[in-house]
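dude i think i finally got it to work??
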Amino acid sequence: MLRIILTAAVAVLSLSPASAAWHKASSRHFIIYSEEEPENLRAFANKLERFDSAVRVLRKMKDPPVGDGNRLTVFVVRNNVQVEKLKRGGGRNVAGFYLPRVSGSIAVVPRATNGSLQPDVVFQHEYAHHLMFADLATPIPRWLVEGFAEFYSTANIEPDGSVGIGEAAAHRKGTFRHKIATMPLTSLLSGEIGGGFDQMAFYAQGWLLTHYLTFEPKRRGQLEIYLAEFARGRSSIDAARIAFGNLRDLEQDLTHYLRDEKFPYLNLPASEIKASEVQIERLGEGANAAMPLYMRLQSRTEGSAADNAAAARALAAVHPDDPLVMMTLAEAEWDARNFKAAEAAADKAIALQPQSAEAHIWKGRALLSQAEAGSTGVSFANARGWFNRANRLDPENPEPLFYYYRTFTGSGARPTANAIAALHYSAELAPHDLGLRLQSARQYLVDGKVGQARRMLIPVAYSPHGGKLADEAQELLQRIGTASGQN
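look at this
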């Protein structure tokens, strides 16, 4: 899964000593776990929702219903040290991380950081990526992918509820001062960069060009022309010459724009921002005790699966009536490949919380894994029924839809029309899961639907963090050519 380092949007949270109890905040797009006091946690959730709304307003994005299993889960921990312990692969000076996936995207963020970045900046950068790729239908060059995220990273959520967009990227000031002149505009546009300072200059100049094209009156409409030409298959440089004219003139304009330091700033009034109701719940004794292990499992932290399962069993022995404890046990047993024990834990979670889609998903996953392992008396149809139940409980949750499809492919059977529709809808609900998008694209290609396949492949191919998935998507796009018909 994709792992992206980020810094939390935590300035609003109190830096006073944490209380003993964990709380859960639930809003339209986020589920947040924190040891903060309820009023501070509510303010933090409202801040995240206002940022989400501001980006959607400016980009004219839709805001479809979000299922309980499809909201971004944010774990707010005390400091960077705790973040580093949770991040798979570890590392020093890790200010936070983000994992986008069909089973529920998560972010792990600290209440306090010791880095030089403002607390909000990198979280907003990465969440802007999250939103961009949820709504991307045409190719986007790498400089604009990062320039877009940098542009929104400096958003200010004001006390009156308004949101300011376009503040200068102060965190790139040193790069502008020392390195910006060393990267020609053609290198930025073509994405020809090395590492180290070149990478820093790429982000900085990507922000500058995005900001300039967004606000400069004489350049109005040029970015749209550029993207249209790029989508037709022109190189980034050729598309830029058509849209922007002489690139030397553009480069000089950028130099003056930076030197003048009179960057326009847009303030969206609170009346244009969609507020979200925030519900705060104090977690019980069992969930409090389970939270460290629950976060490790959700974060895919390194460690012994057997040890995690043993720890979960010990928790369940003390707190047998806590649903979160039982779902933690189900996940830990599943990770340890104790699929029968995972099923038993899921049964207990369902008994404690009959309306929990997550508990039903774990029941289905335990049965699916047993069926794949050839266990006696367990069929793929058994698992399929539990994913159906989970879907009825949370229709906008992509996970049971995906696993419903898997019950066919895992058995070697051809997926039914309903199963194929479930896969594609799952990918629509979780567009940030690049592997899922790629699987949806492959199914479209099998069915001869080239236009839909291309639509699914484009965000994967142009993801700056896509790795091997991006390489495969680019290869598939090359193979299907420039086909754009909707079959």
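The first helix runs from residue 38 to 59.
im so relieved honestly
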